[in-house]
What does this fold into?
Amino acid sequence: MQTDFLQQAHEQAAELIAWRRHIHANPELSYQEVKTAAFVQDKLQSFGVASTLLSTTGVVASIEGKNPGKRLIALRADMDALPIQEENDLSYRSVNDGIMHACGHDVHTTCLLGAARLLQASRSEWEGTVKLIFQPGEEKNPGGASLMIRDGVLSNPTPQAIVALHVSTTLETGTFSFRAGKVMASADEIYITIKGKGGHAASPHLAVDPILISAHLLTALQQLISRHNDPFNPTVLSITSIQGGNTTNVIPDQVKLMGTFRAMNETWRLKAHGLIKQVTEQVVSAMGGEAQLHIDIGYPCVHNDEALHASVVPLAEQLVGKQNISETEVRMGAEDFGFYAQQIPGCFFRLGILNPSMGNTHGVHTSRFIVDEAAIPYGTAMMAWLGARLTP
It folds into this structure.
């Protein structure tokens, strides 16, 4: 190709950073990305790219190169922010109290916008069609990806592959990581109410103590994982909230538990749901209580297509050099990109944003998360490069 995407992205860095700062300063929660979607549509229109809204606050657009029907690649970015109060002292810090781009979605959206401009300007140099997917609601069930798929984002026609990036606080700026196969876990939310019989703490024999029952249940649930799951099959069951009682001398009527279940195997995941239900009901019933259990089914595990991975990595090495490409570690975090990867071949990779001289050591989903904005041109160029060159 005549166009040097990496060089052009660096030349456009100041404008890319300005877009990112605008998005960062004006974050919106999942499924409320109205202004963000409007900003994306305005920028696309300025490039000469038409777009439509999908799933209320999602944005979809296509850019056609030569021979538009030869290939169809989808590029995806998420747009939503988190319910976190930003504590960074920045000129572009969030103006919306209690809402912050603490997971880099402002960077993802900017990179895809930048890639759209590069692809539109170079469309006479590459073949096929690139579909741009700006997605709402990655941070909250049921996941914006599932809604976009429901509403037809992968239909008429179906892309041959889909690609997405995510910022990484463990990779240095200018580097990327990729991995074939399973790379992120499924995520389901667990809600349990244990109903007992309240009473005076000095007369426990006259009550059914839901706090004591919850202690036994917590142990039983952990044994469920350690004794029913293959130790080589990554799994996490964490109860993260226990709510019950409010004074020292009263046994409460009920206790509420909340937690998360993560798995890397869909067959085991569904089996574990049944075991969680069985153990909860049996332990609570055996101790005289009543259990109400709800498992909110979340995102599937993210599986990167092996054949697609084999095509993507050499292209990435061409763009930034083999020395700047590493292998992504498996994580028990979750991403609704897994919904796309269940339908068509997917590649979910990492963009380094770590600059030790900046001291940006705070992780994602924290109030002091910051990004080395020098990473944005690299992410922009990579998305454009894969969109133009990837042949599944």
User: Anything to note?
Assistant: The mean pLDDT is 97. The first strand starts at residue 51 and ends at 54.
